[in-house]
Amino acid sequence: MTATKSSTEKHVIFDDPRSKGVAQVYATAYLDSTAKLPNPVDAVEELRSFVDEAVNKNPLFAEILCSAMIGREDKIALVKRVFSGHCTDTLVDFLMVLAEHERLELLPQIAGLAEALWETRQGRVHVEVRSAHPLTEDALEKIRAGLVESLKINPILVPRVEPDLIGGLVIRVGDTVYDSSLRTQLKALETRLRERSLNEIQSGRDRFSHSAGN
C-alpha cells in the first residue's frame, strides 16, 4: 500500500506543471555549469541518458531517489557512492545539489528543459511540418533550406501526417503558422463567397430601400 501511494505521489510531482518553473531554474544552472567544458553538448546528452537509463527504466531506483522516507544526507551519500566513477563529476555534483535541495524528483523535467534550452542557445528552432502524405527526405530538405534562407533560423523539422489537410503544407514556427493546405484554401474561399453574398444582399436591400423612398 505504501509503495503504491508513493509511486502515485511521484508521478503527480513529475507531471505537475507548477514544478516547471523550479525545473527551469535547475536546467539553466546545469547548462551554465557546462559552459567551460570542451563539449557542453556531451553533458546535456549525459543528463538525458541518465534519466532514460537510471530513472525511466528503473522505477524502483527512482522511487528510492525520490522517497520521503530517505533523509537528505542519505540521498547525497547514495548518489556519491553509486554514481562516482560511472558518471562525470559535473553530473554527480549536480545530482548531489538536487539531493541536497530535495529536487531529484524533477530530473525528467530538468533533462527535457536543459535539452530545449541548449537547442535554443544554438539557434535551433523546432518546426512542425504537417502534410497530407509523408514527405520525402528531398522535400524536407527543401523546406529546411527555405526556412534557413527566409527566416534565418536553424530549423529542426518535426514532420506530422494529417490526411485531413487534403494537400499542401502547414508549417508552424513557434506561434506563427504558414498554411498552404487545400483545406484552408477552401475554407478561405468559402468565407470570401459568404462575405460577397452578404454584401450583395445588403446592397440589394439598400437599393430597394432607396427605390421605396422615392
Write up what this structure looks like.
With 214 residues, this protein is of the alpha+beta class. The chain folds into 2 domains: 2-120, N-terminal domain of the delta subunit of the F1F0-ATP synthase (Peroxidase, domain 1); 123-179, no CATH class. Helices cover 65% and strands 12% of the residues. The protein contains 9 helices and 4 strands; from the N terminus they run αααααααβαβββα. α2 crosses α7 (107-121) and α3 packs antiparallel against α7 (107-121). The model is unreliable at 1-14 (pLDDT under 50).
> What structural class is derived from the secondary structure elements?
alpha+beta
Strand content: 5-15%
| Sheet having the most strands | 4 strands, mixed
Basic shape: elongated
Work out the helicity level.
Answer: 55-70%
Write the layout of secondary structure elements.
Elements: H1 2-15, H2 20-33, H3 40-56, H4 59-66, H5 72-83, H6 89-100, H7 107-121, E1 124-131, H8 137-151, E2 154-161, E3 169-173, E4 176-179, H9 182-213
Parallel strand pairs: 1-2
Antiparallel strand pairs: 1-3, 3-4
Helix pairs in contact: 2-7, 3-7, 5-6
In short:
With 214 residues, this protein is α+β, with helices and mostly antiparallel strands. It has nine helices and four strands; from the N terminus they run H-H-H-H-H-H-H-E-H-E-E-E-H.
